[in-house]
Amino acid sequence: MSTIEIFYFAKTTISFLNLLTEHIFIKRTLNSYRFILIMAEYCKCHEPHLDITIDENEIEKGAVEIIKAIRPSWPLDQLQFKLFTNGITNKLVGVWYPGHYNEMVLVRVYGHKTDLLINRKDETRNIRILYQAGYAHSLYATFNNGLAYEFLEGVTLTPETVRQPEIYTLIAKRMAQMHLLAPNHDEMSKDPVVWSKIEQFMKLMPKEFSDPDKQLQFTKLIKPYAVLEKEYQFLKETLSKTNSPVVFSHNDLLLGNVIYNRDENIVTFIDYEYSGYNYQAFDIANHFAEFPGLEFPDYSYFPEKHLQKTWLKVYLQTYNNTTKVPESEINQLYDEVNKFVLLPHFLWGCWGLIQSLHSYIDFDYLRYAAIRFDEYFRKKAELF
């Protein structure tokens, strides 16, 4: 075992602890200081899998069973719980005991039928890879319908805080660093994942609802499937012609998936359910599209041109390992991002329709889908 220190940029050192050196190969591209990490065997020692299924309506009771297995020395009669309520895909509870809050274990129970949307094997693979690279929390265990993993100190963002320069600068740099990773795994496609994901979602989208009230709302708020199918073909034909690089992306960087630690002045990205190779411009555009918030998005918070270009300059300084970024390059990326912003609205609109059919979480997914599709058509009218 050894610690490999990689000088990732001129002044940035990333340490990878407890990796066998023969399992990592590093090569330098001829025209940059980027490193491509090729993980031949990204982790031989996987976390344990527990044959436990948690009832999402009794999540604390189920979490105790997880703690018994992975923290056998913890006093069960002193356990404390914190239910995190801002998620709209899964249910999440934190478990600790007095005096050990920083050792909290997070237990996430997958939402009902979310396996239709998310490849959980890919998700755990992504977490392992990104943890080894210093980008994700540690995974303690998997169980039949969820994960147990490390708690990270910090706060999630709001439409106000994500616009603060001291925070969005950290996000831009961190995203650029993530985009420079190039994990190479046999089961990981290098094609842009967004097209197959939308096609998957469109096959799963409901065409009608058995509940009369919901069906009435559905026909009132959502355009016919044939219209949406035509829009998808337009998006694929138009955006697949761009020259946006395909990079390893988060693909779901909403405000709740960024943890800001003020004391350490760092941000950490969480929830890698949709991560994979994708267009650079998509990952950035998706993040910008989340500036307005989630449950009641206010699109006046969508980043204006000046903020976007400032953000993109910071991103490109890190991505290109230079302090001098030509204005033309910033403008090019700005144009790409603002075309690609259509894609996340369309993608998450489809997602909302599926969730409106299956999810037990108290959230108006149908209204959310309508909001995203409405913003898609509004933006499209501006751009084309």
From TrEMBL:
<dbReference type="GO" id="GO:0005737">
    <property type="term" value="C:cytoplasm"/>
</dbReference>
<comment type="similarity">
    <text>Belongs to the choline/ethanolamine kinase family.</text>
</comment>
<dbReference type="GO" id="GO:0004305">
    <property type="term" value="F:ethanolamine kinase activity"/>
</dbReference>
<dbReference type="Pfam" id="PF01633">
    <property type="entry name" value="Choline_kinase"/>
</dbReference>
<keyword id="KW-0443">Lipid metabolism</keyword>
<dbReference type="InterPro" id="IPR011009">
    <property type="entry name" value="Kinase-like_dom_sf"/>
</dbReference>
<protein>
    <recommendedName>
        <fullName>ethanolamine kinase</fullName>
        <ecNumber>2.7.1.82</ecNumber>
    </recommendedName>
</protein>
<keyword id="KW-0444">Lipid biosynthesis</keyword>
<keyword id="KW-0594">Phospholipid biosynthesis</keyword>
<dbReference type="GO" id="GO:0006646">
    <property type="term" value="P:phosphatidylethanolamine biosynthetic process"/>
</dbReference>
<keyword id="KW-1208">Phospholipid metabolism</keyword>
<comment type="pathway">
    <text>Phospholipid metabolism; phosphatidylethanolamine biosynthesis; phosphatidylethanolamine from ethanolamine: step 1/3.</text>
</comment>
